[in-house]
Specification:
The protein has 13 helices and five strands. The chain is mainly alpha-helical. The chain folds into two domains: 208 residues, HUPs (Rossmann fold, 3-Layer(aba) Sandwich), CATH 3.40.50; 95 residues, Tyrosyl-Transfer RNA Synthetase. The strands form two sheets. A three-stranded parallel β-sheet has the order 1-2-3. Helix 3 packs across helix 6. It is globular. The chain starts with 7 loop residues before the first strand and ends with a helix. It binds adenosine-5'-tetraphosphate.
Length: 334
């Protein structure tokens, strides 16, 4: 049971595309800071990838889940301090989703920005895509979550999670804890390096060269991506009128090096864009080189990754089962 100081922290990443430094900064890097002082649970949300069933083969879905678990470990999520598991291994996620579907007005889901963006240009989309935020609500509410550390793009889904929890509590009795979203002060939304008006995204990164720096990209690819990042027609950094592309590069530098802003301003004001990009490249490599080395070591032992996933699911399942028992009793389904 949580005491007043220790909080339950829950978050997850969809095993789609190629994880980017956006995912690292918005999610994984901040997850690590919650370890130790809190009960931390980190999930690989594989059920969410079925929302576009044609985009991924079963084999790739299985392998991607393992790749993302290995990346959690390589980024510093410690299985001795945190529970790491794969969503589909705990059946209660889908059961609770059905119950929550029935208390969620469709209008709440049709309004979601991510739904509109992802449905755009597709002839037909699955019911699952519309329902994505309800499955996410189930993920979070099953574990009596206090804090959900995510990037800025997930804020709207977290608001719906709270609305769904409150509506259930109002209809059936007070069972769900209302979670709080935690968004990093800097780097909450890294933008595409090829287009600083669009969010850096791991699915786009898989399709478009130069869009993002991915966590497992080789050094020469990262260098090319950073050095060709879109800035503007100017030559040097002017902080008062910095364009979105320059702000994005400065943000990446700030979050990866943890340099205070005044120091960054002193370092780059009036400097050429070439210098800024070189320094950003160095900062990225200082983060990714050790991470990639850890990833290589971890994936050399696939049995270890499987064990981490199994142990994580075994530890969190009783929490999910307890919550689902309560939900069944309160709704007369027991
Ligand atoms: N550009 C970003 N800047 C900061 N944080 C980001 N996140 C994603 N992109 C950025 C955060 O990473 C986590 C990933 O969550 P997800 O897998 O559920 O998917 P998402 O939010 O839709 O992320 P992507 O990278 O855009 O994936 P695809 O392309 O598959 O949709 C979340 O905490 C998110 O906020």
């Amino acid at each position: 049971m949580n005491n007043s100081k220790r909080k339950r922290v829950f978050s997850g990443v969809q095993p789609t595309g190629k994880l980017t430094i956006g995912n690292y900064v918005g999610a994984l890097q901040q997850w690590v800071t919650h370890q130790g002082d809190n009960d931390t649970i980190f999930c690989v949300v594989d059920l969410h990838t079925l929302t576009f069933p044609e985009d991924m083969t079963p084999k790739v879905r299985f392998e991607k889940s393992r790749e993302v678990v290995a990346l959690y470990l390589a980024c510093g999520i410690d299985p001795k301090q945190s529970d790491i598991f794969v969503q589909s291994h705990v059946r209660e996620h889908t059961e609770l989703t059905w119950v929550l579907n029935c208390v969620t007005p469709i209008g709440w889901l049709e309004r979601m920005t991510q739904y509109k963006v992802k449905a755009q240009g597709r002839e037909s989309v699955s019911t699952g895509l519309l329902d994505y935020p309800v499955l996410m609500a189930a993920d979070i509410l099953l574990y009596e979550t206090d804090l959900v550390p995510v990037g800025d793009d997930q804020k709207q889904h977290l608001e719906v999670t709270s609305d769904i929890a409150q509506r259930f509590n109002h209809l059936f009795g007070n069972v769900f804890r209302i979670p709080q979203v935690v968004i990093p002060k800097t780097g909450a939304r890294l933008m595409g390096l090829d287009d600083p008006t669009a969010k850096m995204s791991k699915s786009t990164a898989e399709k478009k060269v130069g869009h993002a720096v991915c966590l497992l990209d080789p050094e020469n690819v990262i260098k090319k991506t950073v050095m060709s990042a879109v800035t503007d027609s100017g030559q040097e950094v002017r902080l008062e009128h910095a364009s979105p592309g320059v702000i994005n590069l400065l943000t990446i530098y700030e979050v990866l090096t943890k340099t205070p802003r005044p120091e960054i301003e002193a370092r780059f004001a009036g400097k050429g864009y070439g210098q800024l990009k070189k320094d950003v490249f160095v900062a990225i490599m200082e983060t990714l080189r050790p991470l990639q080395e850890r990833y290589r070591q971890i994936t050399a032992d696939p049995a270890y990754v499987e064990q981490v996933i199994k142990d994580g699911a075994d530890r969190v399942r009783p929490i999910a089962e307890r919550m689902m028992r309560q939900v069944r009793e309160m709704t007369g389904l027991g």
